[in-house]
């Protein structure tokens, strides 16, 4: 009788191993089905949702910030550090832990005819002006700069590091894509201190490569 019970238990264990519902998923899949965009992250990372990000963005007094905020279609952020908040996500202060931020927004009327690969590069920092030295650049280094083509969009994938005024070095992995109909931009921004990025390069590169845009 004990042997029969042991066989039954062994059978249940095998069945459980075959069913994905019995195991904890190894990844988080962040997505917006309506906009046809998704990417994958390690399990256990904290999510910062659209509401706190929008609330933080509404505090900006920069020119055009309100219009850009109003045209956001979807945005989410993630970090393995559970103390991260929306302010940390939308700040350029060098973080000692990875921050991954995805954003989809409609282009404004004056942007549709003027957007280019250079302007896609310059969404976070004026990288083009740094390269051309039309402004005084900080110490910086471009590690990668290549075209990225997806089913629903195309644009630029850039990886660069720069030194902040406080002396800290930050690495940014930025994918900026323009929809095929030139109406929408899709951005995945991964940033961390350079020492942090170097230690977690493998994980962060996988997140960047998983960014997929199929479009509406």
Question: What does this protein structure show overall?
Answer:
The protein contains 9 helices and 10 strands. The protein has a 7-stranded antiparallel β-sheet with strand order 3-4-5-9-8-7-6. The protein has one domain: 3-Layer(aba) Sandwich (Protein Transport Mog1p, Chain A), CATH 3.40.1000.10. The longest helix is centred in the first third of the chain and has 17 residues, at 2-18. The N and C termini lie far apart (59 Å). It is an alpha+beta fold and 216 residues long.
Topology at a glance:
Layout: H1 2-18, E1 27-32, E2 37-42, E3 46-48, H2 50-57, H3 65-70, E4 72-79, H4 86-89, E5 99-106, H5 109-112, H6 117-121, H7 127-132, E6 140-149, E7 153-163, E8 169-179, E9 184-193, H8 194-199, H9 201-210, E10 212-213
Antiparallel strand pairs: 1-2, 2-10, 3-4, 4-5, 5-9, 6-7, 7-8, 8-9
Which labels suit this protein?
216 residues, alpha+beta, Protein Transport Mog1p, Chain A, seven-stranded antiparallel sheet, three-stranded antiparallel sheet, globular
The best one-word shape is globular
Rg, please? 21 Å
Give the biggest beta sheet.
7 strands, antiparallel
Distance between the termini: 59 Å
Q: How many E-type strands?
A: 10
Give the proportion of residues in helices: 25-40%
Using the 3D structure, state the CATH architecture.
Answer: 3-Layer(aba) Sandwich
